[in-house]
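Late embryogenesis abundant protein LEA-2 subgroup domain-containing protein structure dump, as promised
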Amino acid sequence: MAAGLLPEDDDDRRDLLERSPCTCAECVGFTTGVALLSTLVLLFIWNILFGFVDPEFWVKVPGVEGLDRSVDAAAAPTFNITLRVNNEGNWYRKICGKGDRVDVSYEGVPLAHGELPDFCVPPGVVGSVPFVATSEGLGLPGELYERMERQRRRRGERVSLVVRVRMHGLTGSGDWPLLLWCTAVLHGRPPGPFVCPILGQPPQFVPLPSM
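structure tokens r here:
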């Protein structure tokens, strides 16, 4: 064999050694990237399937009576109210609330009160919780009735009410009391829904074990 020459096998081995460091680095990088991507995908799927999404609330008033002037009224102010609970973000966890008191007011004047029943909303749906709020007296005081009538004429028959909904507790909040400060509109169909701000809630909902 001539001096200074390597057999073909040695040439192939040398080429392999020269390429190996780069190839190994590429393999490690590729494997790490695949592992990271797989982890993120699994976390995303886990969050969708088993994570907890805070529910949203809003109110509708499908029926009302007794908003006449006191001297002409034959019934007390009575509101048929529906609390809507959006649980579409939770695919496998129901939302349950412990009912409490509901108060309805107009421009700071109390109109009616009632009780919110206990409720549960299945996973992945928007549930409805109907209840009634009423007053002991008949109709509305003359001044309040006139203010409401002026607003109806000025704003195209739209009258905004404040509906305060109290709960003793909600799934994800333990027994921490919650207060929903909701807006409901009478005699009109403005864009909505008006999602209720939640007051008095814990710093962060903590999902409870599924039942």
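Helices lie at 8-50, 142-154.
lmk if u need the other ones
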